[in-house]
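Worked example 4.2. Below are the chains of a multi-component assembly; read each line carefully before continuing.
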Amino acid sequence: MDYETVLRAAGLRITRQRRTILAILAEDDDHPDALALYRRASRIDPSISLSTVYRTMKVLEEKGAIQRHTFEGGPARFEQAGGRHHDHLIDIETGEVVEFRSDRIERLQEMIAEELGYEIVSHRLELYGRRRKAD
Amino acid sequence: MDYETVLRAAGLRITRQRRTILAILAEDDDHPDALALYRRASRIDPSISLSTVYRTMKVLEEKGAIQRHTFEGGPARFEQAGGRHHDHLIDIETGEVVEFRSDRIERLQEMIAEELGYEIVSHRLELYGRRRKAD
DNA sequence: TTTTGCATTGCAAATCATTTGCAAAGAAGC
DNA sequence: GCTTCTTTGCAAATGATTTGCAATGCAAAA
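Applying the procedure described above to all four chains together yields the following structure tokens:
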């Protein structure tokens, strides 16, 4: 939540651009890609560069402060970490992302990995769909 | 299975390079990326080019003859289609891919999408893990 | 505070995976 | 064997992301 804390805890310096980027990520609750983030940040701080957005995303991802998702056929999109784990449903028409979670699926995944002799380190479940017409 | 049929059915010409690529995809049951495919094909037909591998993958994917997977942080990997639907478990140490399927997960996905007001067009479920030490 | 040292930035150029323009070579139907 | 339309190899283009480098800016120490 408090990005200053996040940054400090990660041993990172608090810079104007990082503040700006993190503020955007905290306020907007969608899943912007680097370019979108860059454009939004530019409105607040016109001197910010796309490289910095990418670099910031990379560092913050390593520190676990944000999550990177690469949905089918598109650039990476980001969201701030910290919330509960969830998976994603992507509206293939609009690109909108809906979050959901299912403990049952989660458990089944564990069982499957177990059966196959593996230990799950991470996973990704994405549903791609279109809004059902309410008729 | 019979790639000549696949190609002909798709209205595509049967060329030496397509034959070669499809033969490799049919024989090897792993999930090679374009470069690996190119290297294997080169051993059989040294004149083949990487562009052709990419082009062939693209056409065949459109025709539904192969499937493209983009696992985390890596180039696209391919497998011939036709088998039953399945998901993937990727060994993060070796890159090896294990296929699995779960009707229960499949059904839960449907339910979730339904609840969210969406119709699933496709989905992807990937487990990333490491082999459990048998101790 | 001022100083100092290392982190961070902006810019341009590099990289990686993949696609594409184009002229030459090759299928397929006649 | 022609003719036509497809496919190929090559090189150059593309899109997303990363990186080298010199300049700038934090932050800890003085």
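Take a moment to check your reading of the output against the notes. The two ends of chain B are 41 Å apart (CA to CA). Residues 12-13, 15, 17-18, 47-52, 55 of chain B lie near DNA strand D (CB under 10 Å from a C1').
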